[in-house]
Design a protein that fits this description.
The protein is an all-alpha fold. It has one domain. It is built from four helices and no strands. It is globular, with a radius of gyration of 13 Å.
Length: 84
């Protein structure tokens, strides 16, 4: 899903496809963190939390997607606050 969504979100695609691709991309990353405790991307937890905060503001119309984004933000916060 993550790789497919990159294609959808690429430039030159219709704006709706780009937005859908971005949502699917970040949902795949969030699902891996929230449900499998697996990190499948390189950006820091701080960068991820910022991205999910922006995405959570969007009116996707899917409450489950917004709920997932809120849950992954909590995971990112927890990881950022964990002693190293």
């Amino acid at each position: 899903m993550k790789e497919y969504s990159k294609t959808l979100a690429s430039r030159g695609r219709p704006k709706a496809n780009q937005l859908a691709g971005k949502a699917i991309y970040y949902a795949a990353i969030a699902s891996a963190l929230v449900f499998h405790d697996r990190r499948i991307t390189q950006p820091s937890y701080e960068k991820l939390q910022e991205a999910y905060a922006r995405l959570d503001e969007k009116p996707w119309g899917f409450s489950k997607l917004n709920e997932l984004f809120r849950r992954v933000r909590a995971v990112c916060r927890q990881e950022m606050e964990a002693p190293k």
